[in-house]
Amino acid sequence: MIDVQQLLAGWPRGRWGIAAAVGVTATFFLTALDTLQHYHFGFLILPVLLGLARAFALAAVFYQPQVALGVSLAATAVMAPLSAPNSSGEPWPWTATAVFSYSIVLALAGAQGMPRRELLNWWLAAQAFSVVTVIAAVVLGFNVGWSTLVVMALLSAVGAGVGDVLRSATETRSQLAVQETITEAERSERSRLQERARIARELHDVVAHHLSVVVVRADSAPHRLSGLPDAVRAEFAEIAEAARSSLAEMRRVLRILREEQPDAELEPQPGLDQLPELIAAHREAGAAIEVDAETVADVDPAVQLTAYRVVQEALSNAVRHATGAPIEVEIRRTASMLVVRVRNGRGTTATVEGTGHGLIGMRERVELVDGAVTARPTPQGGYLVEALLPLQEVTRVDPRADR
């Protein structure tokens, strides 16, 4: 069921409990006093019961709108025949409290999501009750005020109309929230796919270099090594041809990726030796960056490229979301891992809300080299990005493949 509080979320939640308690209590006392003015049979329990009924209707409308409207209408139906003998020219069968109470319950029922047709049915039920009751009273010779019917019809129509407007607004808001969730998921997926395409283009240079070396060495082996048997020469020729075919296939795939993103350009891809230039560019922009990096010149180019992109994205996030905060970049090499850490402190200005797409792309990159990345807040109020990149070959060969 739709919560009316979501529509008026600007009011602090704690005040809704106070407002509801005041409304229910006021309804009880006003109904009791109003009933005493029209009921003179000496049974004081009736005003109390009617007050409780209308107070219950006001509270129950947030949970069971149909029950609340039924109780509110039933309370008036009970009051009408008992107060008719003393209602010469007075508002009847709806007292002022009854009119406002029923109209408010109608509005709240609509705000809780009651369909327009059901609101209309309850409005018609109240008008039908009014007309039938007044006609019966006139037939029996009572002098009742017809103006009450007009007032009741108008005020309850306003209540139903307000409820329908609130329902429509709440449903629209819910639909927009669902659409926003879908749109955000689509943006995340698109960002992930775009990042994969970008990674593929960047890794092309790395893999193409290795394949080119294989082709050159396989072609030149018969000339560099004398006395090779014909079978070995043929083997080297097959190796060179396989490498050429792989290189051609990779370039074909790359052309497809470039057709999907025509603005993409082939250019040398950065490694950790370009890290000082990246740091310098951020320092010129005002960032305070401390670097503690080990020499990793012999690390695989694909791993270096991934490490560079992790640092690049982490620095961009730190500058964007924690302006003015000190930043620490640490690169460590263990026996089997390249460890990249980028840590920033608490920013001096308000943070800018991000989409999380940068972290998605970062995770895609790291997973392609069989690594792992974590991004989390620090106890000091800053943020830490840590990537663990394996140094061993990421390509795995099934030992059973040759069997």
UniProtKB/TrEMBL annotation:
The keyword Methyltransferase is assigned to this record: no
Reaction it catalyzes: ATP + protein L-histidine = ADP + protein N-phospho-L-histidine
GO function terms (MF aspect): ATP binding; phosphorelay sensor kinase activity; protein dimerization activity
Name the record gives this protein: histidine kinase
EC number assigned by the record: 2.7.13.3
Domain Histidine kinase/HSP90-like ATPase: 304-392
Pfam family, one: HisKA_3
InterPro entries: HATPase_C_sf (IPR036890), HATPase_dom (IPR003594), Sensor_HK_TwoCompSys (IPR050482), Sig_transdc_His_kin_sub3_dim/P (IPR011712)
Entry GO CC: membrane
Organism phylogeny: Bacteria, Bacillati, Actinomycetota, Actinomycetes, Propionibacteriales
SUPFAM superfamilies given in the database record: ATPase domain of HSP90 chaperone/DNA topoisomerase II/histidine kinase
Keywords noted in UniProt: ATP-binding, Kinase, Membrane, Nucleotide-binding, Phosphoprotein, Transferase, Transmembrane, Transmembrane helix, Two-component regulatory system
Domain Signal transduction histidine kinase subgroup 3 dimerisation and phosphoacceptor positions: 195-260
EC class name: transferase
Keyword Transmembrane: yes
Parts of the chain that traverse the membrane: 16-36, 43-63, 92-110, 122-140, 146-166
Organism name: Kribbella sandramycini
